[in-house]
Design a protein that fits this description.
By secondary structure, this protein is of the alpha/beta class. The chain has two domains: 4-47, no CATH class; 55-246, no CATH class. Helices cover 34% and strands 14% of the residues. The chain has ten helices and ten strands. A three-stranded mixed beta sheet has the order 3-4-5. The longest helix has 14 residues, at 192-205. The chain is elongated and about 65 Å long. The termini are far apart. Residues 4-88 form the Transcriptional regulator AbiEi antitoxin N-terminal domain. This is Transcriptional regulator AbiEi antitoxin N-terminal domain-containing protein. InterPro entries: AbiEi_3 (IPR021561), AbiEi_3_N (IPR033455). Pfam families: AbiEi_3, AbiEi_3_N.
Length: 254
């Protein structure tokens, strides 16, 4: 007979469907709730009482519940060590990507620093450019974007001058990106904006790996794109960018 102790590890979040799939019926769930062996984190979502939840508990629990989800964008870049180029001193919400619609409770669960479910996804459903990072006592695997993918994810959402300046500072520290992986990712990406802006940032940074990217194999679309209003048009990638970066005169924004 299935029991709570044999099926549910501390730190995991599950719903009634998951518990029922392991032989724990609703009446038994209700008993565990009354007895304090199980607690409701949010309506319909349960855990064993224990230490405060970490955001990684939530992400791994989503995979346990059958969701295809990974940590990307600025969160992945922070994990890979690029956060010191930002110097923002503020807590960034955890950026999650999924080809599925994630449950509403993800953004309401109250686990700090909170979650942002990314609506713009610059890649089709490909697994390229990701890695698994073990978390917790049981080394639960959390999927993260590698820096190459995370930079393109970041470029897909940039809308302001300040965001471009911050991305430019991070790109200056990205001397070790792998052009072979970037080539695959750029050829696979469906976001014209992300590809053009990433390549512009890469060219501006002047790293050696940029010269190994074959632009002729990347679909960059046609026509001009305005990234920031009042910017200067880059004649190669046909995007408007902050004049001070385009002309090589960026000053500190901090």
């Amino acid at each position: 007979m299935a029991t709570l102790d044999s099926e549910l590890l501390e730190g995991l979040l599950v719903d009634r469907a998951w518990l029922k799939g392991r032989g724990i019926e609703n009446t038994t769930v209700d008993y565990y709730l009354r007895s304090g062996k199980l607690e409701a984190v949010i309506h319909g979502l349960y855990r064993k009482p224990g230490p405060p939840l970490k955001w990684q508990n939530v992400v791994y629990s989503l995979t346990l519940l059958g969701y295809d989800v990974h940590v990307g964008h600025i969160t992945a870049l922070t994990y890979h060590g690029y956060d010191h180029y930002l110097k923002l001193g503020i807590s960034q919400s955890i950026r999650l990507f999924s080809p599925q619609k994630l449950p509403r409770w993800v953004e309401r669960i109250g686990v700090k620093p909170g979650f942002s479910i990314m609506k713009i996804r610059p890649f089709p459903d490909i697994e390229v450019g990701m890695t698994e990072v073990p978390f917790g006592t049981w080394d639960w695997p959390i999927r993260y974007s590698l820096p190459e993918r995370a930079f393109i994810e970041l470029a897909s959402t940039i809308e302001t001058r300040e965001e471009i300046l911050q991305a430019n500072l991070m790109m200056e520290g990205a001397a070790n990106l792998r052009p072979s992986l970037l080539q695959v990712l750029l050829e696979s990406s469906t976001s014209i904006k992300a590809k053009r802006l990433f390549l512009w940032l890469a060219r501006t940074a002047g790293h050696a790996w940029y010269r190994h990217i074959d632009l002729s194999k990347i679909d960059l679309g046609v026509g001009k794109r305005q990234i920031v209003p009042g910017g200067k048009l880059d004649t190669e990638f046909l995007i408007t960018v902050p004049k001070e970066v385009h002309d090589g005169q960026q000053e500190s924004i901090f």
